[in-house]
Design a protein that fits this description.
Helices cover 43% and strands 20% of the residues. The protein has 261 residues and is α+β, with helices and mostly antiparallel strands. The protein has two domains: 72 residues, Arc Repressor Mutant, subunit A (Orthogonal Bundle), CATH 1.10.10; 181 residues, GAF domain (Beta-Lactamase, 2-Layer Sandwich). The strands form two sheets. Strands 6-5-4-9-8-7 form a six-stranded antiparallel beta sheet. A three-stranded antiparallel beta sheet has the order 1-3-2. Helix 5 packs antiparallel against helix 9. The protein is elongated and about 75 Å long. The two termini are 45 Å apart. The C terminus is likely disordered.
Amino acid sequence: MVKSADRVIEILELLSEAGAGMRLADVREHLDLPTSSAHGLMKTLEQKGYVQLSRENKRYRLTPKVLELGNRFIGNIDLSEIARPIMEHIREVLNETVNIGVLESTDVVYFAKVESNKTLRLAAYVQIGMKLPAHATALGKILLSDLDPAKIEKLYEGQELQRLTENTITSFKRLNQELKQVRENGYAYDDQESTEGLRCLAVPIRNHENRVVAAMSVSVPAFRLDEKYAKKIVPLISQGAKEISTGLGWKENLMAEAPST
């Protein structure tokens, strides 16, 4: 490592945890820096606009310029680029079709897809850019489950839940019960609710604010997806979704601060 670069990063991380700011002597002591080095590094950061010195209490604090870097990073994130190798790994392990969807009003928009190469896979049914009613899919249930119930009620105001198969949920009471179960389980299940003969399991993809911004699912012909197979799929896609979420700036300790619904 380059020592000066390492020290700059340590200073920024240290100040990020010091709400009231820190004096130069405290920074020097905490990081075990020579006085001349500490002074030079802090002056450089101040001149570059990343820290500011309070003339009143002589404490250094971070400036909003640090936040600007984070915002630029977030704005340049490509979800599909992050997700693709992880989806391909899941496909290699299971040889089943993997999808990612995002919420658009009351629909799921299929955003990315990696197909199984099995002969029977129902792959042609879902294509990138296609929309399906959120309440009828595992992806949609995940995405809806992150919304406040009042927002869900407003989204569906004046609407009926479209029936796609005999198994589709068409009652708002039943949908709310299902979403509650999804929040408790951390995954969603679609038992031939959008397509006869197709079952899906889905998990959330979160961003740096711990919000669910997308969902990832595995689609399996109904006869292949039994309880034993589901117990193999859920941990695999949950780990994959965590890796994608980490690429979006999510940290696991945010789960303790998850927004209430």
